[in-house]
Amino acid sequence: MSTEIEPLDADVLALLRAERPIVDLDASAKAGILAAVEARVALPPMPGGGGGGAGGGAAFAGARVAAALAVTFAVGIVTGVAVAPRLGGSTKSAPGASASASAASATAASAPRGEGSASSGSGPALDAVPVGALPAAAAPASAPRAAKAEAPEGPAPSARGLGAERGLLDVARGALARGEAAEALTAVDRHAREYPDGALVEEREALAIKSLVALGRRDEARARAQRFEQRFPNGLLLRTVKGAVGDP
Amino acid sequence: MDGGPSHQAAEVEPVREEAHRRAERSLFRSIFDANAGYVAASLGRLGIAAGDRDDLVSEIFVRVHKELATYDADRPIRPWLFAFAARVASEHRRLARHRREVIGEVADVPSAAPAADRLLEDGDAKRLVNVALEALDEDKRAVFVLHDLDETPVPEIARALGIAEGTAYSRLRAARAEFTAAVRRAQLGARA
Predict the structure, then answer these.
(1) On chain A, which terminus has fewer CB atoms closer than 10 Å, C or N?
(2) CATH topology for A62-83+121-147+156-248?
(3) Cα separation of B42 and B23, whole Å?
(4) B61 with A93: Cβ contact below 8 A
(5) ipTM > 0.90?
């Protein structure tokens, strides 16, 4: 297998670089799309309060799924079961292939979309971005995580704030995956400074503990893991955290 | 932590399930918030017209919701989401082609790409990129967009799309050559 790739011409590369930033959807477009998704997945009402929202239902039953969901968002610690979607394939379990071919008949709200808001700037490419090069958060998310979970229709972190939070944690996760735990910890510390009560505190703390373990600072990791358990006694990442410090 | 008698476990279980469901809903919402724009942009890069994009973003997140348990949590999420976008875009194009055949329309699939001869007059790099992307078939286009716009490493692309790494490399090489040739053609056309 040849892994050599001819470099692109400089002007073509410049063209592509100019096109890399993602312009986020505006809030009204997102709200319309999310409403359409929620209507189609037909979620049952949440026990104990809260209206309809994305995320519940039979498709999500089970702790493994919940753990996969949690780590999906930021951490990358729990080992999930990967079933890659296939382009043009017919694999029964391929994500994206299981729904009927209803793309053209989707019934989403189709409000006109503005192009004003900035990109969340997160994603794979962020793994290579130094922490110091990341933009400072414009507005730290202030809604506590529990409140957000119980009242998804209420005030929530802005997409930009959430994207920036996620971006920082993506940096930490990428650094940790490369074995650069000190860099991961720097990103985590920055998240703690900028989003002390952000939406992803649980994920941040789990990453911090994992980073401390990787740095050989096991006592600090255990102490932090104990605080984690006190703060998130039902946390989706508790098992992961305990595993990281050798306390299953 | 809760290893008591079975009746205690039976009391704890619904509480735990509710906590999971709340967390799941919150996390799905977070994933949507952080990535809906990316998914919409990816559809554009895959040639889906702006007027169809919101419906298809909705379709993609319905599927994501259904398939989230299959996501490998050790992998970045965007290439995985992109694979959904590529499949939905492909289905959309097939359906549009079929519809045209049935009702005898002659118009082409609605595309984000403008005419090449308008490209360089306003120096619109986005248009030029879109025109050149139109020169690629959908398999090569997906690999190219993931690699050269999203900056996803090839092994990650191969995993996300469920193809062999060698296939991903060969598609990328071919896509780069075809994309560059299309850019040159568009530039020549614009100057002619």
Answers:
(1) C
(2) 1.25.40
(3) 27
(4) no
(5) no
